[in-house]
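--- STAGE predict ---
source: upstream dedup step, 1 unique chain passed
mode: sequence only
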Amino acid sequence: MTDQLVLPVGPPTRGERQERKRGSDFSELSRRISEAGLLRRRPLYYTVRFGLVALALAGCVGAFAALGDSWGQVFVAVALAVVFGQLGLAAHDLAHRQVFSGRRPSEAGGLLVADLLLGMSYGWWMNKHTRHHANPNHEGKDPDVSPDILVWSRRQARTARGLPRFVGKHQAALFFPLLTLEGLNLSFSSFRALRSPSMKRPVLEGALLVAHFVVYFGGLFTVLSPAKALVFLAVHQGLFGIYLGSVFAPNHKGMPMIEEGTRLDFLRRQVLTSRNVRGGAVVDAFMGGLNYQIEHHLFPSMPTPALAGAQVITERYCAELGIPYHQAGLIASHREALRHLRSVGEPLRAPAEG
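--- STAGE serialize ---
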């Protein structure tokens, strides 16, 4: 890993010279990407995309108000889950400064979309996601592969205790059912993070989160009967969690895990741990461009519509260098991820030695 390298004393060794040469590989790719004009801002694209999401959100709110205390609200809950998923993708792009180059407008947009509209802390998620990008699939540094509930490697399985040990035995079968709780988990983690010293604006974010849930729960239990409100909540939050999980899980799950002490330059660290998802325009829209995960990790601030062009250049460049570049269809990518979950949970299913 780049941040694990020890500065040489005296003349560099042959291995160190080779590693420095490998470190320059990304510079050449970056030059090709820049010359292709793929890093320039796309304000029209984001204006149209965010405008459509805003219209969809307004349509859901209008339909909710018009239907009143009706079981037809279940269909509104389904539609709102998709809209919330798209809002999550919008918050993601804002956090990466794909929309605005400046920090302030990016943060303002992120706070509005994530905290107020989604009920998820922008500051907490930003901190977590930044650490993920720096060290994807690193067992000790990527928070997305920490063994909180699931285990992501056999080493984690062998040392698992408590809930991860119980769930890990059958985690492949439980993966999608657990995703139904992901939306609520994001909100719970957001409130818990307000006490963290790493939070820059805990009062502001706390106020926005409270405002979100006052409106959300107030609307549900004012317009709907308690039974219908609970059904709406379960359908909306459950499908929202599955949507988010279906977007983020195929990107890294089942790809190589990096152990402490592994030495990889930036290009290889990002490419080898990421998976692209094929599928054309439908998958592009569903995943908000995150199906081009390799290119997104290499160029996090690259606007979404430029990722397809970057994919062609990056795949060809990796072929030149002999770097494995992995792509799969949407269903196949989930199959690979679930197969990995089942495989790493094997030590937990093995009979205990007497």
